[in-house]
Amino acid sequence: MNTSLRKTPRWDVLTCSVIVVACSILVYDALELPPGSFEPLGSGFMPRVLGLLVIGLSVLVALGALSKPAPEASELPPDLFAGMSMTTLTIAAATLFQSRAIDFGILMAAFIFAGVMALEHGRRAAILPAAITGITFGFGMKYVFTRIFVVDLPVWF
């Protein structure tokens, strides 16, 4: 692994904190969802479980980052493009999801595509795999939530 691309523990903790805040909002909003007509646990069960799972994993990552020694100055990344992009994308996706301005499948596909491209620093070679991954997982999540778990996702069109 290229040591110039290693993350700083401070940046890992900051990123995990943003994820915890976003998932806390998700869990809070899921508490207000009314019971569904098809499942006894209600529409908010899966978002609550997923939100709490992501919060728990983020806390574990943050604790792991705090236990690592800080990298030397020569090992710091030259720019923070990927981290700042992911933070901005997370906030934008949460805002669009809350405003119900775009379909869930389209939003998740775009979010995953943009996230992969941000993590790859915009490399051209990553465009096709990022697009395939985004479309597959974005619309796959919509299918799983609406057809298998029968979660009442809002319809925005």
Automatic annotation (TrEMBL):
Segments passing through the bilayer: 12-28, 48-66, 78-96, 102-119, 126-145
Name of one Pfam family that matches: TctB
Assigned keywords, A-Z: Membrane, Transmembrane, Transmembrane helix
Domain (DUF1468): residue spans on this chain: 18-154
InterPro entries: DUF1468
Protein name: Tripartite tricarboxylate transporter TctB family protein
